[in-house]
Design the sequence.
């Protein structure tokens, strides 16, 4: 047993014994313990092995087919070191093609794992890269074009933890699974047989696939026993289409210390933390009062996502502080963030996001018919008068009147074409990208591969303090958002980077483009 494992298990045993006698049965029987993904580091040859596989997972009363990396659901957390090369060997044991995309990790296009990086059923792929960016919580997931939403919904997602020297000096909570805890939140829905019920149809192409069951690390409303003091939560919104707004049940504050691309300059105190699909934030929460509380997600104004039980505050994780003291601290300062460069004279690109009006109309009607007016988040009139448009759901799902919803979401008027990159960015040069959702009242979490950028404005406003650090996803919602991007690696035509909406059903139906560096 390695020393760190001995310390970890000793701490867990100590934590359990620190519970008062009367509360131990209550704690154990009340709800499942939060599953903690194993921490996977490279071996002596700098290798990490990932097996993409199918299996079965228990979700409450359901036992469903699910997919995972090195297991039946989700995957390990890969711990990488800045400046240290790693070789990842990926074997695909699924009955269909997949890819593995390194979301937020700055790597060359050749190993980025976009839709061109196909691993055939039964096949394998080996990639090598060296992380050079600062410490960050990133993640990996499939990027198979047209099937990303389905493969993520089946369970494929894992964390990437990049470490550097500065992070080690800060004394943030760092006991994995004890006071440094991953919190991967996703929603699912199940059919009458208890299987994951995924559909890519007119409704989901318009508003996304969403479920009625929230999972945290694959479990329904689990609990975590934490030492008393500062608790670090690495939050990932791993949903296909649902935005989340995190808070605490007793209104204790969250202190944001890192965003997608790593540490902020200083902690930012918030009472609630909205998160788009694909975003990560690291927060510290003070448990020193010893009182149990919930991490909850608050209602959001997003079409389809206001259906019960999400029209009210919804718990995702129970935190039960223990008697033993935590060792991590909340530092006053975290990392130095470079000042923004002069923005004059930079190459500027405008990306206009849009949805085919037919999909807009058909999707809104399908949503309204299935879930009622409450699902429209107060926006039904904005999408036109659908009263006269009565269509059979079966016909719509198969593309009525020859309508092809698989290419109905677009950037600059074009649906995704894997063979034709849209432009070439210059390596090492700053560019100013304007991403516009004007005229389109859908939420678009816009993600750019191969870089961590700075948000200049978000929906026409300056970014909130906790969103002003390094990011790879920006909020575009009926207005214009501007980001400052720079790419440090090559991405040739055959391995172009992607820029796309991270509402996965929008991505799968055309709202994506390729570009070279």
Sequence:
């Amino acid at each position: 047993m390695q020393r760190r494992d001995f310390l970890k298990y000793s701490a867990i045993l100590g934590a359990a014994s620190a519970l008062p006698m009367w509360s131990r049965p209550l704690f154990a029987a009340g709800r499942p313990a939060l599953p903690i993904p194993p921490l996977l580091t490279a071996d002596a040859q700098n290798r990490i092995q990932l097996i993409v596989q199918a299996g079965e997972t228990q979700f409450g009363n359901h036992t469903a087919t699910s997919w995972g990396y090195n297991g039946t659901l989700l995957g390990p957390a890969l711990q990488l070191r800045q400046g240290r090369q790693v070789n990842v060997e990926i074997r695909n044991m699924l009955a269909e093609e997949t890819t593995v995309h390194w979301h937020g990790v700055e790597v060359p296009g050749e190993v980025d794992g976009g839709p061109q990086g196909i691993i055939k059923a039964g096949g394998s792929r080996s990639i090598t890269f060296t992380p050079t960016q600062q410490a960050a919580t990133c993640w990996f997931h499939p990027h198979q074009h047209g099937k990303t939403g389905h493969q993520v919904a089946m369970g494929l997602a894992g964390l990437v933890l990049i470490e550097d020297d500065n992070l080690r000096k800060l004394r943030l909570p760092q006991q994995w699974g004890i006071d440094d805890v991953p919190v991967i939140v996703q929603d699912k829905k199940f059919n009458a047989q208890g299987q994951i019920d995924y559909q890519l149809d007119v409704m989901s192409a318009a508003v996304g696939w969403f479920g009625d069951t929230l999972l945290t690390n694959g479990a329904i409303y689990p609990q975590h026993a934490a030492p008393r003091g500062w608790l670090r939560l690495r939050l990932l919104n791993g949903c296909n289409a649902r935005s989340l707004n995190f808070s605490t049940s007793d209104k204790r504050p969250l202190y944001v210390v890192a965003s997608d691309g790593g540490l902020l300059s200083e902690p930012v105190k918030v009472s609630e933390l909205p998160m788009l699909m694909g975003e990560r934030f690291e927060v510290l929460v003070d448990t020193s009062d010893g009182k149990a509380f919930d991490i909850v997600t608050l209602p959001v104004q997003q079409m389809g996502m206001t259906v019960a039980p999400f029209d009210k505050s919804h718990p995702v994780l129970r935190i039960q502080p223990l008697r033993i003291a935590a060792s991590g601290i909340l530092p006053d300062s975290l990392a130095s963030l470079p000042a923004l460069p002069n923005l004059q004279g930079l190459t500027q690109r405008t990306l206009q996001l849009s949805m085919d009006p037919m999909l807009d109309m058909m999707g809104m009607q399908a949503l309204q018919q299935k879930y009622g007016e409450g699902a429209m988040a107060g926006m039904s009139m904005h999408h036109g008068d659908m009263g006269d448009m009565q269509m059979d759901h079966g016909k719509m799902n198969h593309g009525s009147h020859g309508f092809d919803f698989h290419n109905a979401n677009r950037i600059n008027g074009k649906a995704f074409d894997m063979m034709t990159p849209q432009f070439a960015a210059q390596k090492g040069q700053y560019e100013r990208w304007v991403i516009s959702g004007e005229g389109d009242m859908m939420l678009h979490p816009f993600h750019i591969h191969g870089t961590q950028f700075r948000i200049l404005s978000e929906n026409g406003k300056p970014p909130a303090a906790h969103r002003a650090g390094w990011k790879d996803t920006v909020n575009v919602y009926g207005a214009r958002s501007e980001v400052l991007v720079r790419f440090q690696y090559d991405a040739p035509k055959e391995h172009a980077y992607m820029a796309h909406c991270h509402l996965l059903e929008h991505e799968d139906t055309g709202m994506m483009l390729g570009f070279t560096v």
